[in-house]
Design a protein that fits this description.
The structure is a homodimer of 605-residue chains. The first copy, chain A, is of the alpha+beta class. The first copy, chain A, is built from 19 helices and 12 strands. Chain A folds into 3 domains: 156 residues, Butyryl-Coa Dehydrogenase, subunit A, domain 1 (Orthogonal Bundle); 126 residues, Butyryl-CoA Dehydrogenase, subunit A, domain 2 (Beta Barrel), CATH 2.40.110.20; 151 residues. Chain A starts with 10 loop residues before the first helix and ends in a 13-residue tail after the last helix.
Chain lengths: 605, 605
């Protein structure tokens, strides 16, 4: 199969989601901020995006994976294909498309942007990763910088002439940002002198020309070298590779010390940076001192949706690759007449069908959830009604750790199934699936590991506001279950979702009480199982929404084929029968604070 | 951590398994065939093996992974480190150590051999893979060849001066050996002229000197070109790269056409072979015509234990790597005082402990099962009592698909957890875990995919002999549960195992009846879930055995530390609480023949 034959995402499913599930038309008309957009315009945009993804970005992916960036003479050189593909991606305007008209941009709904990112990410995460980082850095400056900072740094980032990074992690701190040691000392000119080491900085160096603008966390020190410890001492800085000095770009003493040999996203360099070896690294404070963490985290939530979209995209590409392979590859026979008859395509074998439907359920559940979250971002930011904005933000906050982790974790399993369907061929780098397996593993690590998502969900999100966000979710589950039943979907499915939601609520209550009683360790002991439990329920909610729209489409003769709609019902059935029954067991582990791993002594491993 | 610091396997656990769980002394004394061996001699052997694994084989692994074989001038060139490491491995005598004294060998118990293979495989699967293939090929000639064939081919293989392969797969057939098209035409000299293409032939070409002896399946054709179709038409042949012609080794028209770019086991070449392009490829029939499949499958069962051992070994190496990392890496704080106090090693975090204990439970359950299976091979082959031999063979046959698939599938998950514990560093090729992740994926594919193991277990093994093998397993479960209770292990664990065994039996009965009723498709629809169900139960049986020995060791003050014994109890507890509760759900899917993936129409994907 030629690379371009892989659709990356299923266009029919995207159309179905936008029109029959998420009701994009209603979304656009409910929010005046989006008045410059209509459904037809979105379709024109998606047509352009599909073409770019399939004809420009995907054809460069394999070569970028096979020939990662080279570290030569102190600088990083990308695969040559970046030099044509990056401008093509920038030209779409997607780096800044969601930004306001007042900045010369399009006010594109984030949900549409997420669809575009999914197509492009499925085609080539190296390029899309660089774009996301650049947008994210620009957005930080937009949100928290003053006019001077915006003029200097935001504009060229959104224009894609420069690129951006998020420079948080340090070798000794890892996920524990409270231990960031990079310092910033105020200079006479009002800027800061930055010193420290950062690691795992994606896109931190390249040869695309222009500049690299690092958005870095650092600790302001007074002249005596004192600093506020912990996360409260962290501030956000622009620390560019080249700084502006009298209108000239000059070297800013930010040096690439290492290129990390990543196992995936191999086209996009991840580097170690050293700031201020010559004490000449200028940093520009973004927003007030000591606000680095909350500022970073405001952006982090959107970055986490970005990870969910990327993980979904990778799983989708692998699903479609294995689906095409399963239809094309003859092997074995119908089990009813083993030695006779012609070979059948492997899609005829029950276990291959199992591996395909599991992938489909993971991919489509992840896509629906990611787009649901993206739509909430739109509503939370731009809906005219105050209360609607607030509740959407709360629900979005709750869903974020699930959007970040479910597509990553189950998406890794999903790509492994795609590889398995290819048999021995899948184990060869001549087929693309193994590269997606490597790519996918990053998504459970960057932007907060899965373990951190579990702590975030249980330790913060579900207990925030006295459990208000969880109540909102439960109300959504009930609404979806009611609609499903009304549409003629098997009423047992909605009942099962309601029951699972109740179990989630009871589990949360029990754990919350444990925490309030002072046993924080016991409360958080099974945060992973709690995340898993919540994810299974939330994905069921999504599948039931898809099933409802499919059943309605079948009943009224909707725009898709009956077979298409039936496929959505089968994926929902799979989730009801295979995943939802896990809820009780997961809840039980949480509530009992099952103690096996807590009890292992140091000498017992 | 320096590579040599990884113990690969835990010596204490191996000793505990041999002495306190499997009772190697009793095994040796019950079987006169092993009279040349005693426990002390085994320890001497293991000391030598550990040294070889840690000091010779493991230090060559990374370089072999990074610099895979090169295909140059029509031949394959291995990484140079093979040239010293292969003779060192051969010198141990392990290639033939289990073979009879009458062939000049040691009659080493297979269970001891399996322990040795686990150490060596954890160190370097490239070398051990080549050794296993060589032994396997020699064993086929030993078992089915006449004296002339043995003299010509077996001896140099067991001596490691030549190497062997299993040449089964063909591009158009894959797992479906009934579609093998390679032909063999009888020549006047009594040998055959072989023509055809084989693919994924591990070790099929190299520059170690000597010869490559392929054990190939081919279809005998009569002078008119007719052949018996299907598996009944397959015969087994020695098809060497160099044939003996008047005492000289001459080219045998077996040509390497391609080197496959595997993603793991990268030091060991996997090639495509073309036989007989010049119609001068001589093959030598092994055993009677038309017996190729049953002969191959007699060896396949031991090869499948080999896969289980290899998968266990890889998961073990990754577990120990992540364990050491978790103790060495400071990050974050005790959740009870977040911003204060010193950083803690990440082993203090609950979710890291979860990932470690899950790995430990998978690794130690897999190791115990693999060694239990290997001990059954010894008993089935050499026990003086007829009935004991037969029942051991039956039980071994039943366990084989689980031994093949559980360490491979859960071991893949296990290595992914080891990578996750390393965070961003795990995603870099500077740390060894990602290489083990790639290595591990092969184990669910080669020597029969996991899908095929499921069909083998449900379609053949559990129904064979009117369910006799399953009855034997149930009796073993009951015995183990009884012993556990007597030793003072929590009686709920044994009761849970008994109940799970009953559920397995009832599920098997229900599916068998469905099959007898003519619904073979419905019977086999959930063969994967059935395999999973049986695996969860069988691993619980193993963990309960370990827990029993540990409890006894605690009570009497056994040779290991109390902390060590307690670790075994915690792993068993983990399996009881986290995995065993899945049994009901899996059984339910099987019995109901849940129909989601069966029902997906071609246009519904």
């Amino acid at each position: 199969m030629a690379p371009s034959d892989n659709p990356l995402l299923d266009d029919r499913t995207v159309t179905f989601l936008l029109d029959e599930v998420l009701d994009l038309r209603a979304h656009l008309s409910a929010i005046p901020y989006f008045e410059g957009h209509d459904r037809e315009g979105v379709e024109v945009l998606l047509a352009m995006v599909r073409k770019l993804a399939r004809r420009v970005l995907y054809p460069t992916y394999k070569a970028q994976d096979e020939q990662p960036p080279v570290f030569r003479d102190g600088r990083v050189h990308l695969h040559p294909s970046f030099h044509a593909a990056w401008p093509a991606l920038v030209e779409t305007g997607l780096l800044s498309a969601t930004r306001p008209v007042e900045h010369g941009d399009q006010q594109l709904p984030f949900v549409v942007h997420a669809v575009a990112a999914a197509y492009l990410g499925a085609a080539n995460l190296n390029l899309v990763g660089l774009a996301m980082l650049t947008s994210g850095a620009a957005h930080l400056v937009e949100a928290f910088g003053d006019d001077a900072l915006r003029a200097a740094w935001m504009a060229p980032l959104y224009a894609g002439t420069w690129t951006g990074t998020m420079a948080l992690t340090e070798p000794q701190a890892g996920s524990s940002l409270a231990d960031v040691e990079t310092t910033a000392r105020r200079a006479d000119d009002g800027s800061y002198r930055v010193r420290g080491s950062k690691i795992f900085i994606s896109g931190g160096d390249h040869d695309l020309g222009g500049n690299v603008v690092n958005l870095a966390l650092a600790r302001i020190v007074d002249p005596d070298g004192h600093a506020i410890p912990g996360t409260r001492g962290l501030s956000l800085f622009v620390v560019p590779r080249l700084r502006l000095d009298g209108g000239e770009l000059v070297d800013n003493d930010a040096v690439t010390t290492q290129v990390i040999h990543k196992i995936g996203w191999r086209g996009l360099p991840s580097i170690a940076l050293s700031f201020g070896d010559r004490d000449d690294c200028h940093g520009y404070l973004v927003g007030p001192p000591g606000r680095g963490m909350p500022q970073m985290f405001q952006m982090m939530n959107e970055a986490r949706v970005g990870v969910g979209v990327a993980a979904t995209a990778t799983a989708s590409a692998a699903y479609h690759e294995s689906l095409a392979y399963a239809f094309a590859r003859p092997q074995g026979r119908d089990p009813r007449h083993r030695d006779g008859g012609p070979q059948v395509p492997i899609v005829a074998h029950a276990d291959v069908r199992r591996m395909l439907l599991r992938q489909k359920a993971i991919v489509e559940g992840s896509l629906a959830l990611s787009l649901t979250a993206a739509r909430l971002v739109d509503v939370a930011a731009h809906h005219p009604d105050d209360a609607t904005r607030k509740t959407s933000q709360r629900l979005f906050d709750l869903l974020t750790p699930i959007v970040k982790s479910f597509p990553a974790e189950r998406g890794f399993e999903s790509v492994a199934l795609a590889l398995q369907i290819h048999g021995g061929y899948g184990y060869s780098s001549e087929y693309p699936v193994e590269a997606w397996l490597r790519d996918q593993k990053l998504n459970s690590i960057h932007e907060g590991t899965t373990g951190i998502q579990g702590l975030d969900l249980l330790g913060r999100k579900v207990v925030a506001g006295g459990g208000e966000a969880l109540s909102l979710l439960l109300a959504e589950l009930a609404t979806t279950a009611g609609r499903a039943e009304a549409a003629g979907v098997d009423p047992a499915w909605g009942a099962a979702l309601r029951e699972a939601g109740d179990r989630l609520a009871a589990t949360t209550m029990a754990l919350g009480q444990r925490g309030l009683g002072g046993d924080v360790e016991g409360m958080l002991l099974h945060s992973h199982d709690f995340l898993e439990l919540a994810s299974v329920v939330v994905i069921m909610w999504q599948h039931l929404g898809l099933a409802t729209a499919a059943q309605a489409g079948l009943a009224r003769g909707g725009p898709q084929t009956p077979a298409f709609y039936d496929g959505k019902l089968r994926a929902a059935q799979y989730w009801v029968t295979h995943e939802l029954p896990r809820v009780d067991h997961l809840a039980d582990l949480c509530v009992r604070a099952e103690g096996s791993y807590a009890a292992v002594a140091d000498g017992s491993w």
